From TrEMBL:
Domain GAF: 43-87
Residues spanning the membrane: none
Pfam families: GAF
InterPro entries xref list: GAF, GAF-like_dom_sf
Protein name: GAF domain-containing protein
């Protein structure tokens, strides 16, 4: 946003995140007056993350009321494209971190269940005259059911 304003000479720039649950002003930069007159030149460029419309980069006000050029618009489009790529990359990173946490949790549950099964098998195997089927059934019956805090 700052680069867009600096490169085009805009007095103010705003990044607007739009969409479900995102209708908000993500940032604003003002180099001139806090209020840009309605008659001041304006430039709005969409920001896309993949095929999703994520928001807009908005610029307003130039020295002497000079309108934004096609070159300004192209430059801001390139910046908006890079912003969309950055948001997409951040989303991918967060998805990867979430999957990592799920895998860590699943591994912890698996270890707890296998440890409980091993203890139950060891305890049941020491009884005379007990068959493997009985040992396995006893071990399965001894597995935590989630009420003792092991799984819950």
């Amino acid at each position: 946003m700052d680069h867009a304003a600096e490169l085009t000479g805009a007095a103010s720039a705003a990044l607007i995140a739009t969409g479900p649950g995102r209708d908000c002003l993500a940032g604003i930069r003002t180099t001139g007056p806090h209020h840009v007159p309605e008659t001041a030149p304006r430039l709005r460029v969409p920001i896309h993350v993949g095929d999703e419309a994520f928001g807009e980069l908005r610029l307003a006000g130039r020295p002497g009321g000079v309108p934004f050029t096609a070159e300004d618009e192209q430059l801001v489009r390139v910046l908006a494209t890079h912003a969309g790529i950055a948001v997409g990359t951040a989303r991918l990173y967060e998805t990867a971190r979430q999957r990592e946490r799920w895998i860590e949790g699943a591994a912890a549950v698996t270890i707890a269940l296998l440890t409980a099964l091993r203890h139950a098998l060891t305890d049941a195997a020491g009884r005379p005259g007990v068959t493997r089927v009985e040992v396995t059934a006893d071990a399965i019956a001894a597995l935590p059911d989630g009420r003792d805090g092991v799984c819950g």
